[in-house]
């Protein structure tokens, strides 16, 4: 990596000390500020990060313009960063899902984080606080002040590894550690190869903007409800399928950012990694679907005066669990109801099937240990029809 003219004043051990100071400031000063002032505390936290970076430069007497280098950005650089983020972002989702599967108690972090970030702020406010400030202030302290201490190291991958771990730890989140560490690795790689903090700030802003936009509007749509860790982890296979091209995008981005040291064999390795991720994703998705599906079947019968109802589907539940019931009706125009009853007297669902082009019901329910029966009830106006009802409970 390119050294600065005052590199002699900086040593790798100083980078570890500076990171220790940063974490101490976060725990002792920033965290209490966030708890007391909420959004205002988040703003102060980011400003404190930037202040520590600037003070460190003044104390060590190194040139600020070299610690925070800003250079001309080329189209090749922009596309390289975009392709890298197209690979890193979906891999980050996979990492969060994997962590949720290992540490299910981490689901509380999602709820607390959403309340803190999206509670009372407008969308513009969220963009300023969550996207703009971190992109500037966190890059100043991480890719600027801290990373500059490691410029004397001969192996770039060691710098990237150290900085990725630092970035993951600094977010103080079990659920997001792997995701933020992965982002820290991508940002640090770009800084090491291009020595342009403007690029990492742009990448940081872009990543946070996508996450913030999705989080803000989904939070408003769902009325503040969030997924549990079990919900997040249950989609691990789907996320892996979504992310299977990530290694190829990352290698393509690396090629554009650092063509001189690029080796074509990396695309072969990326292709193998993509195939493994895809195969694992398909396998996990199939296994998860089969494991979570309680009932998937079809009811078809003729409605008569003597037999207006049909109770041909049954299932057993061994332990209490949450489930989703989806029933879709075709070939029936009369009035129908779907019931699910337990042998012990519980009535889980007794819902009319709505009229319209798509006759479907969908309910989230809680099932206790029991033997259940799914029944289709038909009114008199349905006599003579032959309805077809597809039922899935999972």
Structure in a nutshell:
With 394 residues, the protein is of the alpha+beta class.
Overall pLDDT metric: 91
Q: Could you state the oligomeric state of the chains shown?
A: single chain
* Count of all domains: 2
Strand order of the largest sheet: 1-8-3-6
Largest sheet: 4 strands, antiparallel
Q: How would you describe the shape?
A: elongated
**How many distinct beta strands?**
8
Low-confidence stretches: none
What is the end-to-end distance? 53 Å
Number of helices: 13
Helix content: 55-70%
Percent of residues in beta strands? 15-25%
Class from helix and strand fractions: alpha+beta
H and E string: HHHHHHHHHHHHHEEEEEEEE
Give Rg in angstroms: 27 Å
Structure description:
The chain contains 13 helices and eight strands. The two termini are 53 Å apart. With 394 residues, it is of the alpha+beta class. Strands 1-8-3-6 form a four-stranded antiparallel beta sheet, with no helix packed on it. Strands 2-7-4-5 form a four-stranded antiparallel beta sheet, with no helix packed on it. The chain has two domains: 7-289, no CATH class; 295-393, Jelly Rolls (Sandwich), CATH 2.60.120.
SSE layout:
Layout: H1 12-37, H2 39-60, H3 64-67, H4 75-102, H5 107-118, H6 123-148, H7 156-170, H8 177-194, H9 197-221, H10 229-234, H11 236-242, H12 246-257, H13 265-292, E1 295-300, E2 309-317, E3 321-330, E4 336-342, E5 347-352, E6 359-367, E7 370-378, E8 388-393
Antiparallel strand pairs: 1-8, 2-7, 3-6, 3-8, 4-5, 4-7
Helix pairs in contact: 1-2, 1-6, 2-6, 4-8, 4-9, 4-11, 4-12, 6-7, 6-9, 7-8, 8-9, 11-13, 12-13
